[in-house]
Amino acid sequence: DQQVKQNSPSLSVQEGRISILNCDYTNSMFDYFLWYKKYPAEGPTFLISISSIKDKNEDGRFTVFLNKSAKHLSLHIVPSQPGDSAVYFCAATSSGGSNYKLTFGKGTLLTVNP
Amino acid sequence: NAGVTQTPKFQVLKTGQSMTLQCAQDMNHEYMSWYRQDPGMGLRLIHYSVGAGITDQGEVPNGYNVSRSTTEDFPLRLLSAAPSQTSVYFCASNTRTGRETQYFGPGTRLLVL
């Protein structure tokens, strides 16, 4: 049973446009959500996170939105740049559990075309 | 700081062979974890440790052993390699309170023939 779902394996956008990556979760205990970015042949790197007490968190060109009632979050990248081309993983954890146990989605490959 | 380091970068094994994937971190992080990444499967937790001498199983622990004798090192042992263990393995570490900042190593690509 997949608790964190990224239903789009890939996404292609033009440079300068908005990229929207989606993530759904099923476990109601999840209260902290993270996005990681991964380039080929490298380990994932932390990008941005959001707590369930918020519905939006912004960091430069990256904004994460959380809709708790729909158990849905999204990552917006504006404007998209070719260097943003990577695999993006959504991850979730619960404060009631161990904070080292992240549950990851399968990832979405973002390609930003010049 | 080197962060999280992993060796080797790439390894080919024959079915039934054993080997140890090395992981070390120099950030004095309490928590360390091992993940595997397979195509279309995302990252799955194999084993984790909350400190020296303490380890526990993750989502896919079968076929793997770990130990944590020091804060810095967290090796992953394959006792008898199987083709199903062909994967990319990532080690990660984080502090007790910094759950969002899991630092990942560069990965070890393992091929079991």
Give an overview in words.
The complex is a heterodimer of chains A (114) and B (113). Chain A has 114 residues and is mostly beta strands. Chain A is built from no helices and 11 strands. The N and C termini of chain A lie far apart (38 Å). Chain B is an all-beta fold and 113 residues long. Chain B has no helices and 11 strands. In chain B, strands 2, 4, 5, 6, 9, 10 and 11 form a 7-stranded mixed beta sheet that branches. In chain B, strands 1-3-8-7 form a 4-stranded antiparallel beta sheet, with no helix packed on it. Chain B starts with a strand and ends with a strand. Chains A and B meet through strand 5 and strand 9 of A and strand 4, strand 5, strand 9 and strand 10 of B.
Write the layout of secondary structure elements.
The complex is a heterodimer of chains A (114) and B (113).
Chain A: E1 4-5, E2 10-14, E3 19-25, E4 32-38, E5 45-51, E6 56-59, E7 62-67, E8 72-77, E9 86-93, E10 103-104, E11 108-113
Parallel strand pairs in A: 2-11
Antiparallel strand pairs in A: 1-3, 3-8, 4-5, 4-9, 6-7, 7-8, 9-10, 9-11
Chain B: E1 4-7, E2 10-13, E3 19-25, E4 31-38, E5 42-51, E6 54-57, E7 64-66, E8 76-78, E9 87-94, E10 103-104, E11 108-112
Parallel strand pairs in B: 2-11
Antiparallel strand pairs in B: 1-3, 3-8, 4-5, 4-9, 5-6, 7-8, 9-10, 9-11
Shape of chain B: globular
Report how far the terminal alpha carbons of chain B are from each other: 36 Å
Mean pLDDT of chain A: 93
Secondary-structure content class of chain B: mainly beta
Number of helical regions of chain A: 0
Helix percentage of chain A: under 10%
Low-confidence stretches of chain A: none
For the biggest sheet of chain A, the summary is: 6 strands, mixed
Radius of gyration computed on alpha carbons of chain B: 13 Å
The share of residues in extended strands of chain B comes to over 45%
Structural class of chain A: mainly beta
Number of helices of chain B: 0
Q: What integer is the average pLDDT of chain B? A: 93
Largest sheet of chain B, in brief, is:
7 strands, mixed
Q: Report Rg of chain A.
A: 13 Å
- Proportion of β residues of chain A? over 45%
Count of strand segments of chain A: 11
Oligomer: heterodimer
Q: Give the SSE order of chain B as H and E letters.
A: EEEEEEEEEEE
Question: Which bin fits the share of residues in helices of chain B?
Answer: under 10%
